[in-house]
Amino acid sequence: MKVLLIKDVYKLGRAGDVKKVADGYGRNFLLPQAMAVLATPGAMKTAERIRTKAAERRTILNEEMSVVAEALKKVQLSFGARAGETGKLYGSITSQDVADAIQAKSGYGIKRQQLDMQPLRTLGEHVVRIRLTMDLIPELKITVYREGEAEPSLPIEEPAEKAEPKAVEAAPEPAAETGEDPAPAES
């Protein structure tokens, strides 16, 4: 089925493009959502007009959303989660969890469908892209740390430095335990 896109459709094309799509996708999604019309000769005559209007709307929307994009680039999220010794999480951090955290931290309502991510299942740093418009896709840094450890501060480099002294402090403790072995021998 050939359709003429009326609106920008993610991973398909921009308004005014003629695309060949599966019959079910066109009939059950694109046409009822008013994202496309059948590519008839009459509709093809309006394609250029649709392209110019969409380009004007796209530039206006990009200018408005650039403020939001700049604010979201500065946001850094951190999640505490239970994890095994290998660093794999027992659960996962889902796109809904990230969307809720963005809402709480920045005040901007982001839908989970706008997040370009798979569920996070490991400890460490992750980068998530937020699709605000087709042209404007800011990146967001997310840190997943082990629940029970100290929450990392905003600069990512500092927690790694703080984690090393904790590991060094833990090393003398086993030495103290070996010192206890001679104590029962003295009794």
Keywords for this structure?
187 residues, alpha+beta, Ribosomal Protein L9, domain 1, Ribosomal Protein L9, domain 2, 2 domains, 4-stranded mixed β-sheet, 3-stranded antiparallel β-sheet
Short description:
With 187 residues, this protein is an alpha+beta fold. 43% of the residues lie in helices and 22% in strands.
What is the helix/strand order?
A: EEHEHHEEHEEEEHHH
Sheet having the most strands: 4 strands, mixed
Class per helix and strand makeup: alpha+beta
Q: Superfamily at the CATH H level of the largest domain?
A: Ribosomal protein L9, C-terminal domain
Low-confidence stretches: 155-187
Number of strands: 9
Q: What topology, given as strand order, has the largest sheet?
A: 4-9-8-6
Protein architecture, described:
The chain has 187 residues and is an alpha+beta fold. The chain folds into two domains: 44 residues, 3-Layer(aba) Sandwich (Ribosomal Protein L9, domain 1); 93 residues, Ribosomal protein L9, C-terminal domain (Ribosomal Protein L9, domain 2, Roll). It has seven helices and nine strands. The C terminus is likely disordered.
What order do the helices and strands come in, and which of them pair?
Layout: E1 2-5, E2 18-20, H1 23-30, E3 36-38, H2 41-44, H3 47-74, E4 76-81, E5 88-93, H4 95-106, E6 115-116, E7 120-122, E8 124-130, E9 139-146, H5 157-170, H6 172-180, H7 182-186
Parallel strand pairs: 4-9
Antiparallel strand pairs: 1-2, 1-3, 5-7, 6-8, 8-9
